[in-house]
Amino acid sequence: MNEILVLGGTGTTGRRVARRLTALGHPVRTASRNVSRAGGGGHRLDLDDPAGWAPALDGTRALYLVEPDLRPGTDRRERLPLLVDRAVAAGARRLVLLSAYGVDEADDGHPLKAAERAVQDSGVDWTILRPGWFAQNFSETFWRPAVLSGLLALPTGDGRTPFVDAEDIAEVAAAALAEDGDRHAGRAYRLTGPRAIDFGEAAALISAATGRTVRHQDVTAEEFVAAATAHGAPAEAARRLAGLLTDVREGRGAEIGDGVEQALGRPPRSFEDHVAAAAAAGCWTPAD
């Protein structure tokens, strides 16, 4: 079948990767634990059930890899390495891994460290994507409810980060999966936006685009964890997220990466561009 398989095909990046590849005329199928959500041509692929992987991997020439479960308290380090082995054995000759900023410098306990090593040692063409915080966290996922409430209470201080648009991540992934030649082979791309901003500026930009009052309030990590758990978040997950946000406060991850320009030959999309598009699409319009 010679298809490109997109793991996590319903997720923030996966659905965009699949859409781009389809628009370019490539045969694509998505994979998801819940086949009803995998979309047209979707396959069931539960990373906790290796015995059921073969139908999804059969005929796959390239594979977009993402670990959908990085919750604290769960050990997911062996799932993607095993999938890499199975995919290569089934005939895949190109792998693109969605990793994260800083994994290359992390210790072996990081849940994505083994996945990076597995693709690098796979014996086939590979590309690793290391993005920072997604701009879509404000419009689609983590922080959208807070934006709708008007208050982003986060332990980030005036720390700055270069939010990356998931559309850029998807475009780089699609290029690495589908372009002929080896331009992207053996590359690890640090993907960011064009400049670093703090959460106060992010809130102000969203306010200006939507006409809503949105502000950022700095809180301590302990206050953030208490509020998150009061709203039902598992304590360990809240503490881990607080640690990542505190990293922003302390200036980690503020560096601008050139991965988008290296891969695509153009500058990355700005946070302002994302906010304008998200506002026009009604991402911050409350449901009736």
Automatic annotation (TrEMBL):
Q: Cross-referenced InterPro entries, in alphabetical order?
A: Ergot_Alk_Oxidoreductase (IPR051604), NAD(P)-bd_dom (IPR016040), NAD(P)-bd_dom_sf (IPR036291)
Q: Can you tell which superkingdom this protein's organism belongs to?
A: Bacteria
Q: TM spans, by residue?
A: none
Which residue range or ranges hold the NAD(P)-binding domain?
8-179
Name a Pfam family for this protein: NAD_binding_10
Q: Name the chain's protein.
A: NmrA family transcriptional regulator
Q: What is the lineage of its organism?
A: Bacteria, Bacillati, Actinomycetota, Actinomycetes, Kitasatosporales
